[in-house]
Specification:
Layout lengths: L14 H6 L10 E8 L5 E3 L7 E3 L4 H11 L3 E7 L16 H12 L4 E6 L12 E3 L2 E3 H18 L3 E4 L6 H11 L8 E6 L6 H6 L20 H13 L3 E5 L5 H10 L4 E5 L1 H12 L5 H15 L3 E4 L2 H11 L1
Parallel strand pairs: 1-3, 1-4, 1-12, 4-5, 5-8, 9-10, 10-11, 11-12
Antiparallel strand pairs: 2-3, 6-7
Helix pairs in contact: 3-4, 4-5
The structure holds ligand PBG.
Cofactor: Zn(2+)
EC number: 4.2.1.24
Family: Belongs to the ALAD family.
């Protein structure tokens, strides 16, 4: 009997054969590494739910940046934890706010490293919401004003890219206009366009100390059940001038990453968030998963799904492991 079938295994016969036909690759340039800068002195505190991730004060920044450069990371995403919080998040747009200071320091001592400033208020507000609060409501247009002030002060400090994560409507239009008016026409906006109201942010809220003090973020972040809503968000952000689109979280939303890649002609960024990191770390610590293999598989899967760039807490490890494999 003559069977008719295809021999797919021909292209899997050896390591070199597999390398020859590999479709997607990870590179150091693909990664953006988040940093948590803590206002104060002599602080280098590991986030308990994110082993290997530290909140650091400015006096530890130099050593941290040297380590980042040594690993070959080219871009960092800055989050700040201010010493004082208030109703309107004043430290987010203060000239000497923690992110502004850290940005100035990095651009002075490590000028080639791209500084991406997260533009949000939740780490700076006493109520932990990403905008101005009135009663139990998060006000949209009133928040835009403060977000513009934040973005402009971050640009003034030297940030290379502004990354608004607050999910107020019109934040790209407002920030673009504000940056242009202040003379920062060359600074791109990396919009957290497609950001879901996700439980996977849990460990981040410990790291950034920005958990909402009442309610949740469901009136401004997206419903995890929705797909078409992602198109609406991305369409308006691109129309308003977004230069990059972020999809967040990563792993449970790879279908959305593919949708964005197929439909928008700007670089697509995936945010491999804190909860995804924590799950792999916990399983690895228990000996249940091989950390290196799992992380590299997950990250290349994100590229296969259509991500051009990956924001990930695994960046240092991943780059080290990729070098080992060469
Ligand atoms: C701030 C912000 C959050 C994250 C990034 N920026 C938390 C949130 O929206 O509650 C989450 C990142 C992570 O989980 O790694 N708005």
């Amino acid at each position: 009997m003559q069977l008719q079938f295809s021999r797919h295994r021909k292209l899997r016969s050896s390591a070199n054969m597999r390398a020859l036909v590999r479709e997607n690759h990870l590179r150091a340039e693909d990664f953006i590494y988040p940093l948590f800068i803590y206002e104060g002195e002599n602080i280098r505190k590991e986030v308990s739910s994110m082993p290997g991730v530290f909140q650091i004060s400015m006096d530890h920044l130099h050593a941290e940046m040297e380590d980042i450069v040594a690993h070959g990371i080219k871009a960092v995403l800055l989050f700040g934890i201010p010493a004082t919080k208030d109703e309107c998040g004043g430290q987010a747009y203060h000239d000497h706010g923690i992110v502004q200071e850290a940005t100035r320091y990095i651009k002075k001592h490590f000028p080639d490293i791209l500084v991406i400033a997260d533009t949000c208020l939740c780490e700076y507000t006493s109520h932990g919401h990403c905008g101005v609060v009135k009663g139990e409501k998060i006000l949209n247009d009133e928040s835009l004003e403060l977000l513009v002030k934040t973005a402009v002060s971050q640009a003034q400090a030297g940030a290379d890219i502004i990354a608004p994560s607050n999910m107020m409507d019109g934040f790209v239009a407002a920030i673009r206009a504000g940056l242009d008016e202040a003379g920062f026409t060359e600074i791109p906006i990396m919009s957290y366009a497609v950001k879901y109201a996700s439980s996977f942010y849990g460990p981040f809220r410990e790291a950034a100390e920005g958990a909402p003090q009442f309610g949740d973020r469901k009136t401004y972040q997206m419903d995890p059940a929705n797909r078409l809503e992602a198109f609406r968000e991305a369409e308006s952000d691109v129309a308003e001038g977004a230069d990059f689109l972020i999809v967040k979280p990563g792993m449970p939303y790879l279908d959305i990453v593919r949708d964005m890649k197929n439909n928008f002609n700007v670089p697509i960024v995936i945010y491999n968030v804190s909860g995804e990191y924590a799950m792999i770390k916990a399983a690895a610590q228990n000996g249940w998963l091989d950390e290196k293999k799992t992380v590299l598989e997950m990250l290349v899967g994100m590229k296969r799904a259509g991500a051009d760039l990956i924001i990930t807490y695994h960046a240092k490890d991943a780059i080290r492991w990729l070098k080992e494999e060469q």
